[in-house]
Design goal:
By secondary structure, the protein is mainly alpha-helical. The chain has one domain. It is 40% helix and 5% strand. It is built from 4 helices and 2 strands, in the order βααβαα. It has a two-stranded antiparallel sheet. The longest helix is centred in the last third of the chain and has 33 residues. It is globular, with a radius of gyration of 18 Å.
Length: 131
Amino acid sequence: MYVHKNGLARFATVPYQSPQPSNMNNMCMHLTNYAINKESDDFVQNDDEDADDQGSKRSYKSVLDFIAEKFGQAAAKKVEQDINEIILKTVCTAQPHVLHLYRSAQPDDFENSMCFQILGFDVMMDHKLNC
């Protein structure tokens, strides 16, 4: 498996607050879905590929860099390890299904079997960097 450092990190466009009756319907506060947040007045579109640490969608690497800057390199390394562990455990759980999909895509080609699957993982992190 390969985890791409320029993977996508999405952010809610409204600062998070614990769910309460007054904010339960504010989807831009509680969800990070692009389809929802792109409609927000607070959505920041980043058109500069060299500034991957700005906007409502950022690179995974920029998030790790931010954590290292604010909390230290050890904290960033722990977050990365925690995320990798979540991915590994999830893929191990899904392996039988992924293998079935692989065999369905390449049923008769045993010598040149070249197939891959791109998987996306949504990982939420709290203010204490717990994933």
